[in-house]
Amino acid sequence: MSAGNKLRINKNAGILRRFFIPRSQSGFTMIELIAVMVIMAILASSTIGSYSGFNTSLRLFEEVRDMSRKIQYARDYCIARNESFFLKVDAAATPSTYSLFHNNNSTALVLPDENSNTFELPGYADITSTNIDAAGLEFDTFGEPQVTVDSSNIVFESGTHMIVIVTPTGYTFLD
Q: Structural domain boundaries of the chain?
């Protein structure tokens, strides 16, 4: 081989080395990291929107369940003391409220660990309808509702959740 050929091979090797750098270190390039961050940002923004709607629905369900438990607790509390009690629901109030009374529909029934007999629901837990009249729903000393209909209903947010009080047992459940 002549000296000119060797120079040309060395010259070409230098050009290849400049454009095709061998990777001696492992890791990610900056472009790969930016691409992953952009994809994660898109996924996070779409997830946050759906999560906030889910969170509101979950908070509403918690309020409805809490109201149902308080009604059931008041029923059990009065059965143990051989007293009747009344449940009054004010769906027209803003925010919606419900109250518990015992014996004569005017004596406040303050349950243990509660500060009042009137409970105010948050704005997102609006009672849209109920078939409980303004005088209230009376439960006798056995915990049975004193109404002629099969069940009393308290409907939240146009039907998304409902508390049903079954006659004659007084059993309360969520629908």
A: 53-174
